Structures are given as C-alpha cells and as structure tokens.
Amino acid sequence: MESPHVSDTAGQTVAPVGERTSTHPGRAACYPRWRRGSLLAVALLFVLGVIFHRQWLPLLVYPLLAPTNSHPGAADVVWIRSSDGHSLPTEDAISQAAAILRQNPDAVVIFTEGWPSRLVELGVLPPMVEVLRSALKDYGIPPERVIELKPDQAGLWYEAQAVANYLKRHPDTDVVFFVEEFGGRSTSLVLRSAMGDDVYRRVTLVGVPHPLFSAQNWWRCRAGIKGTMVGYLYLIYSVIEPRPVVSPQPLSLDDFDRLIPQCPESQGNSTP
Amino acid sequence: MSRRWIAVLVVLGVVGGLAATRQWWLPHLASWLDVSGPLRRADYAMVMGGGVENRPVLAAVLYRKRWVDRILISEIRPIPSRTRSLIPAEHELTKALLMRLGVPEDRIVLLRGNHAATFHEITSLRDVLAESPSVRVIIVTDSLHTRRTAWNVRHLLGPMADRVTFVGAPSERYDLRRWWQSGDGFFMVTSEYLKLVSYWILYGTGKWWVPGVIALILVLGMLRRHLTRYRRTHHLTQGTA
Q1: Is residue A268 scored above 60 in pLDDT?
Q2: Does B89 contact chain A (CB < 8 Å)?
Q3: DSSP state of B214
Q4: Across residues A131-159, what is the average pLDDT?
Q5: Residue A72, pLDDT score
Q6: Which chain A residue lies closest to B186 (C-alpha atoms)?
Q7: Cys-Cys crosslink for B168: which of A136, A247, B36, B241, Cβ 3.0 to 4.6 Å?
C-alpha cells in the first residue's frame, strides 16, 4: 500500500518519509541526494576501472588458474601430454621440463596422449612421443628418459588414471604437470576425480602461459579473450561433470566415405 | 499468495520443466547450429581451419567422389614458438593429409594470408568468388560450425552467397545427440552460441542493436519515472484543490 501524501499549509506537495526528493522549495522533481551520490559513485568507479584496468582484469581469470601454480621444485617425474595427438605443449613447458630433468638426473618424463591422431595414423606426422623426445634431445636430454603411458581410453580423465597407477607403483615420486595456464583449475578438478585425493596431493600443477597472452595481459588480444572463454566453459563443465559420461566413438575413413554419395552429375566422367 | 511467491513458483516450475525434458530439447540446440545443405556439384571444396583431423578427410572424399575439382585451404596464422619447427603449420598438415588421401598436389589451392578466424577465411573466399563469377564452392567444416560460417558467408559475400553450400564433418569427440555429456561437446555447442553473439555484435548489426536497446530501456525507464511522478503530483494537486 502506498504511503499517503500530504500537503503542507502553503499548498506544496510533500512526499512521504523516505521519498522526499528535495529540501529546496520548488525542486520536488529532482533526484534524491543519496541517488545522485550513488550515480556519481558509479561514474567514478567506472572511470577508476578504466584507468586501473591492468590491476583488476587479471583477477577475472584468477578462478581459471591452477590452485598450486607455484614454481616446481625438485621433482622425480614430469608429466607432459598432447591433448589432441598432433601437438605438444609450448616451448616454455618443454624448456622448464628440461631444466627439471637436468637438475635431477634420476627424473623422467611421462608422456600421455589425449586422443590418437589421424595424422599420425596416416603417417603425416611422427608420433608425438617421438617429437617430444626429439625436442628434449635439443636440450641434452636422452630419449630413454621419456616414458609413454597408454591410458585405457581417450581423454584426460583416463590419462590421469594411468598416471595414478604409475605413481602407485612408485610411491616415493612426485609429479610436476605442465598445463595450459587458463586450464589449470579445470584440470585440477579432473585429476582429483580420477586420481583420488591421496595421489593427487603428489601432483604439482604448473600453468604455462600461451605464447600470445597470459593472465597479466589476456584482454589485449583476440586469442586471450577466446582463451578466457574456453577456460571458463571447461571449468563449468569440470565442476558439473569431471568424469567422462560417454566414451568417444572413433571414426574410420570408411565412416567418412559412407557420408558422401557418388556425385550423380559426374557419373561416367573421368577423375577430375 | 503474494506476487513474489507466484513469481518464484513460476521460475521453479520452468527450471524443473526444462530439466525434466532436457533429453528432448538439448539435442535441438546442437541441430540448430548445423545448417549443412544438400550437396551440389562445385568447383572447389574449401576446408576451414581449426579441424585438421576431420575436415580434410571429408574434403578428400568430396574430391574422390567428384563433387569438386579442387580443394581450397587457408594459410593459418602460426602461433609463435609452437615447439619450434618440429610440427608444421596447420595448413601444411592439411595439405599433407589431403595428398596422403589421394588428392594430387596441383588440385590443392592455398589461400595466402594471415587467417586467424572464420571471418578472415570467408573474406579471402570473397576474393576468389569475385575473380571468377561462375565458380561454386562447398565449404567443409564441423557440423556445429556451419551456422556461424553461413552467417559470415551471407554477411560478407552478399549475392555471391548463393554460390556457396555447406557440408558438416562429424567429430569423434562428441555425439550431437548427447553433446552435453562430454566436455568437448559442451564446449563446442556453448562456445558456438557465444561466438555467434560476438560475431553479431562485432561484425553485424548487433553493434547498433545492443546500444540502441540499452538506450531505449534507459529512456523508457526515465519516462516511466517522470510519468509516475507527474501523475502523483497531479493527483495530489487535484486532491488538495
């Protein structure tokens, strides 16, 4: 119910308590003082936000970063993975891995592959474990220090299980895992789900920035904005469902072939 | 029952209904993104960047089954220091894969440029179509990517868009009927919707619509406030008179 409005003796309209708009006679339509103050505060905050954007924009991607994003100390095992089977982590990750391996002569690299690549199957590319061995060889690391682990199925969750099994067989080892900087948190959720808390405690996640952007400057390039979006989408999914629900169904070349019929317009013509 | 409680119950009912029927409507979100059309013979199949595992394979099938005479690929902007020279650039991998699948080298045409997005690739395609007025193209990309590509084609090519058709390549990382049950499916569908909105704002009429609608809401809010105040004042003046 609305509060009743009253008139004073001079015939001026007086708003109910709390709705009084102005103390000045004849200025009843003005914004109340508190509202003008809040508008000014919002405008001031906006201006300050623009001026000091370098200070607060990195905080927007903070939820994406790995929870233990510290510099790796002396580790026994370095875990490197190829998420798609035809690429490797950045040069930065490989040089950091090489530094750990040089520091600890007993340390090894375990390599896993998220998905088998058709490019490798058809011989367009060598297997990524060989590419990694060759990359580390340039840093003076012999190829036998790279061990490939084969997960039961494709995907990070199963790779993490394979690594957990390795760690259970080597109870005194600790692992450093190089992940994309903006995928740190979502990766940690998947690892915790796949490995269990006890094994997960032995894994140190190290976020490696993308060559084009990092948490300190992601808003400056298109790739950084896209990377932030990708990071948040994967984080949302990892929070909801860290464990895979359905198994991937590999497609053969014949599956692609069955999708496309012979072109009727070119029946009888020679091959183009 | 107060209005607030009714609103809460309505919201809960809608959310519950959506959750209960998700098996029915979630697949439609993915199928809406797929605008692959019926096949029509063309001069070129254009392989869009970003899907080197499946798109070139489908393009090679199109060539082998004589739907196209040549295959267009775009030079993709390289990411600096990506494991140095150990792994070739994406367009080189695409070319090598096409050749391995039986497409002769002289049938592969490279679109030179610094392509980093769908928008850039379609801009290069516009030049090809403008140079040869009778050329027709089949664009090969992931099924979920076809709507955004088609939007770019309509937006950038204008009347030339009639010479372009789309074929959606399947992906083994997700099933379109159950996309929300895998991380890659969830990412692909949600990111495509976000990208469609961002393309509409950056390259389409969205850059006028969004500020226009915000301005309209502000103006309507101010008008409503002034009207309420006027009515109240007017009503009280009449009452006191």
Answers
A1: no
A2: no
A3: H
A4: 93
A5: 59
A6: A237
A7: B36
- Which pLDDT tens digit goes with each residue over A154-167? 889 999 999 999 99
**Shortest Cα distance, chain A CAs vs residue B112, angstroms:** 21
Name the more confident of B90 and A16: B90
Pair B146, B36: CB distance under 8 Å: yes
Overall residue count recorded for chain A in this entry: 272
Please judge whether B240 and A7 are an interchain contact, meaning their C-beta atoms are less than 8 angstroms apart: yes
Mean pLDDT to the nearest integer, A114-123: 92
The one-letter code for the residue type at B102 is: G
- Provide the shortest C-alpha distance from residue A125 to chain B (in Å): 8
Q: Examine the pLDDT at A120 and tell me if it is beyond 70.
A: yes
Q: Give the predicted TM-score (pTM) of the model.
A: 0.82
Tokens of B35: 């605008």
Is the Cα dihedral A38, A42, A48, A54 positive or negative?
Answer: positive
Rounded-to-integer distance, Cα A145 and Cα A103, Å: 14
Helix axes B183-202, B146-157, angle to 10 degrees: 20
Q: Which residues of B touch A263 (CB under 8 A)?
A: 39, 41, 65-67
Packing angle between helix A184-195 and helix A222-240, nearest 10 degrees?
Answer: 30
The pLDDT tens digits of the residues spanning A83-107 come to 889 988 888 889 999 999 999 999 9
Contact B77, B117 (CB under 8 A): no
- CB contacts < 8 Å between A and B, how many? 149
Cα(A88)–Cα(A206) distance, integer angstroms: 15
Question: Which residue on chain B is closest to A133 by alpha carbon?
Answer: B86
Q: What percent of chain A shows pLDDT beyond 90?
A: 56
- Residues in A closer than 8 angstroms to B84, CB to CB, are 91, 135
The shortest CB-CB distance from B41 to any of A123, A135, A265 is to: A265
CA of B99 vs chain A CAs: smallest distance (Å):
10
Contact at 8 Å (CB) between A200 and A160? no
Tokens of residue B175, six digits:
């099933």
CA distance, residue A172 to nearest chain B CA (Å): 31
Residues 6+ apart with CB under 8 A from A120: A85, A86, A126, A127, A128
Say if residues B115 and A166 touch (Cβ distance below 8 Å).
Answer: no
The pair of structure tokens assigned to A20 is: 């009084």
Q: How far, in whole angstroms, is CA A14 from its chain's centroid? A: 58
List, for chain B, all residue ranges whose pLDDT scores fall below the cut of 50: none
What would the CATH number be for the domain defined by A64-240? 3.40.50
Distance CA(B23)–CA(B178), nearest Å, equals: 8
Residue B201 sits at the chain A interface (C-beta within 8 Å):
no
The distance from CA A64 to its chain's CA centroid, rounded to whole angstroms, is 6
Contact A80, A93 (CB under 8 A): yes
pLDDT confidence of A21, banded at 50, 70, 90?
very low
Nearest CB partner across the interface for B87, out of A88, A237, A269: A88
For residue A225, the SS3 value is helix
Q: Sign of the CA dihedral A153, A159, A164, A169?
A: positive
